[in-house]
Amino acid sequence: MAVTADALLRTVVRAAEDKKACDVVVLDLKGISLVADYFVICHGNSDTQVQAIATEIRDKAEELGARVRVEGLESARWVLLDMGDVVAHVFHREEREYYHLEGLWSDAKSVEFV
Fold this sequence. Notes:
6-stranded mixed β-sheet
């Protein structure tokens, strides 16, 4: 059975929060981009934390049955985790401020989690 985008999204957000990711933002890209349905954007304050967040997201998504492609884990400055419908961007704080993806995708609605 294929994992749904919503279930995957919840798993990714929970995994990031479990590793104390900072300022987790979810952007709904449906109808805006063909790249993915959702972007999850967050950051860590050290290389070690960025790697821990990205690894936790990968592990939990794979446990759910998602295929995960990862780029940038070694440098831990901007780790991209592509899971098809959900793409997670785990930044080091300085890189997140510099690239400001939220501003680049300002047409997308922010999704709130409680």
